[in-house]
Design a protein that fits this description.
Helix content: 25-40%
Number of strands: 13
Structural class: alpha/beta
Bound molecules: adenosine-5'-diphosphate
């Protein structure tokens, strides 16, 4: 598989401070890669280097066959960038904004078709200042797509969206993959990464701390099923062999590889002891649990 992005040994120092520390990163053509990390981990620095907006201290960077530091203008046309915050010219209609943007490119996509991909056809004649927050983000995406880029950088594309707008955006992002685009996505929503990403790379304190599919990441931690319940005052303590622990939420938690047998044992004990297993929950670790576990000991 061809790499759209191939980064080897990338470092970025700000004076003595090492923001990005010798990272390798590959993004395959046509995949959605989620680049995750806490604030300050080094995501923006890395992405700005990939976009050609920041020079690096050391390492090799290849994006669509070029080093972003000295790539030709034709290279820039192959890259679409959707920033978190952007304000379109308020006097223009959505359609005008997209057509105007298209004029900057030698081989743009059809503007009407682009508006359709992002679901803005019905709002094409609206002034951009009248667009809702969700519609503005669609317009941002249309503006990034109209140049027909091969690679799209999406920076927290659904921050501040209500749940239904998020789901719609996910559909739009999946549509990008369907038409063969490569997407590098940053997000703080683990369900978003789990839903959209073919692969995930986690950066912590400037270093890559994990990479793989959501399933591969889950395999790196204790992925046993978690049975949890909220203890009530006066409850009998669970027998020692359950190895129940108190989790971060103050609930009791039993980790198990054999959910059925453990549930049988637990409920038999609870019925006998008169414990009501309040808020009983049985769940596999989510990507959020995995992420928190993988990043918990990472600090500068
Ligand atoms: P993220 O996007 O993951 O939040 P950043 O790449 O923005 O992380 O920042 C990584 C670290 O580098 C942070 O500690 C940040 O304070 C620092 N940093 C970013 N830009 C600069 C700069 N221009 N000068 C000095 N330090 C910087």
């Amino acid at each position: 598989m061809e790499s759209a992005i191939d980064v080897q040994g990338l470092s970025m120092h700000y004076g003595d401070f090492v923001a990005v520390d010798n990272i390798d990163l590959q993004v395959n053509e046509g995949e959605i890669l989620a680049f995750l990390g806490q604030n300050g981990a080094g995501k923006t620095t890395t992405i700005e280097i990939l976009e050609g907006f920041r020079s690096r201290t050391s390492g090799s960077v290849n994006v669509l066959g070029h080093d972003p530091q000295d790539a030709p203008l034709s290279w820039r046309e192959r890259i679409g960038i959707v920033l978190q915050e952007s304000e379109p010219v308020p006097e223009l209609t959505a359609g005008e904004a997209v057509r105007m943007q298209a004029a900057y490119y030698s081989n743009p996509r059809n503007a009407e078709e682009t508006l359709e991909v992002v679901g803005l056809t019905d709002s094409a004649d609206q002034r951009t200042r009248k667009l809702s927050g969700g519609q503005k983000r669609r317009l941002d995406l249309a503006l990034a797509l109209v140049g027909d880029p091969d690679l799209v950088f999406l920076d927290e594309p659904t921050t501040g969206f209500d749940p239904s707008a998020r789901r719609e955006s996910w559909g739009m992002i999946e549509a990008l993959r369907d038409i063969g685009k490569t997407v590098l996505l940053t997000t703080h929503y683990m369900d978003e990464a789990e839903h959209l990403a073919d692969r995930i790379v986690v950066i912590g304190a400037g270093r890559i701390v994990a990479r793989g599919t959501a399933k591969e990441l889950a395999d790196q931690i204790d992925a046993r099923t978690r049975i949890t319940w909220k203890p009530s005052p006066g409850d009998a303590a669970p027998p020692d062999h359950f190895a129940a622990i108190t989790n971060d939420f103050g609930n009791l938690q039993v980790n198990t590889e054999n959910t059925l047998a453990s549930m049988h044992e637990l409920t038999t004990w609870a019925l006998g002891a008169g414990v009501d297993l309040h808020q009983l929950n049985v769940a596999r670790p989510t990507l959020e649990d995995v992420y928190l576990e993988l990043t918990k000991d990472v600090s500068r």
